[in-house]
Design goal:
By secondary structure, this protein is an alpha+beta fold. It has two domains: 2-96; 102-241, Alpha-D-Glucose-1,6-Bisphosphate, Chain A, domain 4. Helices cover 52% and strands 17% of the residues. It contains six helices and six strands. The chain has helices at 2-28, 34-62, 67-96, 132-141, 154-167, 225-241, and strands at residues 102-104, 148-150, 171-176, 181-187, 194-204, 207-216. Strands 1, 2, 3, 4, 5 and 6 form a six-stranded antiparallel β-sheet that branches. A hairpin with a 4-residue loop joins strand 3 (171-176) and strand 4 (181-187). Helix 2 packs across helix 3 (67-96). The longest helix is centred in the middle third of the chain and has 30 residues, at 67-96. It is elongated and about 75 Å long. The model has no long low-confidence stretch (mean pLDDT 92).
């Protein structure tokens, strides 16, 4: 009985982390639908909780003295905790942000996708901007996402913005210096979700205006990813221009 408890406690943690780790790759290779992949993550969280409980019980009941057994239980506890925490934290984030997936620094005149538009032809989320309802939700949730006003010539801003895009690992789709437009696609590591980015650079007297738009191809909510992408781009660009 004690051996069964020990094996159950040890195995649950590793099963939980396995379910979590394979969800994304199996979705990317189209062996799982997105709904099933998310279900794997939910199961990982449940099994992770079970692992934590079993490890605690095993530690109290068995009081293992062998270092190998102790290490195994500790590893199971940690993997169970990770398998529970990652889906849980993702859920908490999703509940704390609006269910929108199109974020832009200019909600009145969002930068338009040109070169990327044909690439989104079959995407569930259309290339057009959703409208004022999305804009209002964005303003409430992300008031810091706004047009950048830079005291640098447009050509310098364009060159630096292009450097940031390339350093970010995004797939560059088009860089049109004459139009002051850069388009690229960012692909998430785990699930392989694709979010498209367009950057618009225009001169206004001695100031250069830079607007960014980041839009997910799939999903009602981006779980805050597009806003974070714009923030990181903004911060990286300012560092290059300093």
């Amino acid at each position: 009985m004690k051996k069964i408890l020990c094996f159950a406690a040890a195995g649950a943690g590793f099963l939980a982390i396995l379910l979590l780790l394979i969800a994304g790759p199996l979705y990317r290779t189209e062996l799982l639908t997105l709904g099933t992949a998310f279900l794997f993550m939910r199961w990982a969280a449940y099994v992770g909780i079970a692992a934590i409980i079993l490890v605690v019980i095993a530690g109290i009941v068995l009081r293992p003295s062998a270092r190998s057994a102790q290490a195994l239980l500790v590893a199971s506890f940690v993997t169970g905790l990770v398998a529970f925490y990652l889906p849980y934290s993702q859920l908490q984030t999703a509940q704390s942000v609006p269910r929108i997936h199109d974020i832009t620094t200019d909600t009145q005149n969002p930068p338009a996708f040109v070169a990327i538009a044909p690439l989104r032809a079959d995407s569930p989320n259309p290339v057009e901007y959703p409208g004022e309802e999305t804009a209002e939700q964005q303003r409430q949730a992300y008031p810091d996402i706004e047009t950048m006003r830079l005291p640098h010539p447009p050509q310098d801003v364009f060159a630096s913005a292009l450097d940031v895009v390339e350093a970010s690992g995004w797939e560059l789709v088009e860089a049109n210096a004459n139009d002051g437009r850069i388009e690229a696609t960012a692909t998430t590591t785990w699930f392989g979700f694709k979010d498209d980015v367009v950057i618009r650079i225009t001169g206004e007297g001695s100031t250069t205006l830079l607007d960014v738009r980041s839009k997910s191809r799939l999903g009602g909510s981006d779980v805050g990813a597009n806003a974070e992408r714009i923030r990181k781009f903004r911060d990286d660009l300012l560092k290059r221009l300093d």
